[in-house]
Amino acid sequence: MEDAAKLGPAEEVPENQRIQPATGRGGALVERTSTPGGLALVSPYHTHRAGDPLDLVALAEQVQKADEFIRANATNKLMVIAEQIQHLQEQARKEWGTGCPHDFLGAYKLQYDLSWTPYEDIEKHDAQISIVNTLLSQPAALPPNTEPTFLGLTENGHS
Predict the structure, then answer these.
(1) Which candidate, 117, 120, 127, places its Cα nearest to that of 159?
(2) Which DSSP state fits 141?
(3) Residues 6 or more apart whose Cβ sits within 8 Å of residue 25
(4) Where is this region: Disordered (predicted)?
(5) Do 43 and 35 touch, CB atoms closer than 8 A?
(6) For residue range 15-30, what is the model confidence (pLDDT) as tens digits?
(7) In contact, 58 and 52? CB cutoff 8 Å
(8) What is the chain written as a DSSP string?
(9) Looking at residue 12, what DSSP letter applies?
């Protein structure tokens, strides 16, 4: 309002178009302090206190409430996912009809190194990884002979 008084006679802003402060003392709409205008709206002790840490019954009640809250949130999110899955299944039935529009080409497993293993080779590949993991987990030194040996690494001792 003081700025309007500094303007010249041709630039004066009419009273009904002046910008009014958000509060009577020129404050903002949102205060950044816990005591806006010097007055505490809520008790910080009661808003930040979860309970007496030595009261085990109150602590157990708080844990139970938190568990129920987490369970309710997880249930709600899973319900949304289930509804989306049902919608996609209905949409797929409408688009595909009674059969899949494409021929089955094969099944693959995505490995940790981001390579793909055909379904028929998954057990063999997993066995090889198991052997390598066993080798890496053994603290023993390598054998003195130059030929690799896998004795003790497979079930019957033969590779």
Answers:
(1) 127
(2) P
(3) 37
(4) 1-29
(5) no
(6) 655 555 555 555 556 6
(7) yes
(8) -HHHHHS-TTSPPPGGGSPPPSSTTS--SS-SSSSGGG--SS-HHHHH----TT-HHHHHHHHHHHHHHHHHHHHHHHHHHHHHHHHHHHHHHHHHTTS-SS-----EEE-TTS-EEEGGGHHHHHHHHHHHHHHHH--SPPPSSSS---TTTSSSS--
(9) P
Distance CA 77, CA 73 (A): 6
- What is the rounded average pLDDT of the residues 134-138? 84
In the block, which residue shows the tokens 């690799």? 148
The model's pTM is 0.35
Cα–Cα distance, 65 to 50 (Å, whole number) = 12
Segment 30-52 mean pLDDT: 70
Single-letter residue type at 94: K
